[in-house]
Structures are given as C-alpha cells and as structure tokens.
Amino acid sequence: MRALSVRQPFAEQILRGIKTVEYRSRPTNIRERVYIYASRQPAAHEVFAKMQMEPADLPQGLIVGSVEVVGCTESSGGFRWHLAMPKRLARPLRPKNRPQPVWFNPF
Description:
Layout: E1 3-6, H1 10-16, E2 21-24, E3 33-38, H2 45-50, E4 62-75, E5 78-93, E6 103-104
Parallel strand pairs: 1-3
Antiparallel strand pairs: 1-6, 2-5, 3-4, 4-5
C-alpha cells in the first residue's frame, strides 16, 4: 500500500474525519486505501493554534493511519482529492523507505 505525505495537524484532521478534501496542485487517478504519513515538517503555527495544540502534541515522521481516496475534482488553480473512511493505527509506524513529498512506498 502506498502512503500520502501530509503535514500535521492536517494528518490529524484527516484521521478525525474533519478534513475530507486534500488540496493538491496535481490530479490523482488513485482510488484506493492509502496510508497517511505525518511528515516531519509541520504546518504553520497558526493552524495548530486554531486546534488549540502545539506541534509536539502530534506524531511526526510516522505513518499514523489510512484513508480511502474516493475521487478527484478540479478546483480553481488546483485539485481536490476526496477522502473517506479514515482509520487510525493503534500504534504509529516508522516507514522503512524514505518518505517523499506526495506519494511513496513506505515498506
């Protein structure tokens, strides 16, 4: 199974079912369950403040769960990847292969 790299706290929002659309500059034809990799580089501090969290509160550099990519639609200046049925891993996993900015094979 491939993994999608997402910055925290967006990875956490996906797992909570709050974030059901991932905005990207390129379309995807992938329609399957993929791992969510919480990248090492977090989003801007303001995003954490809105969730009343700090970057250290969430795992980074680990696979934290999975989600189904169920569609992709064009949006002004980019694409919306539609996500559904998130599942959190009981224990985050460290990928064996080097993470990439978008898709990568973690094991």
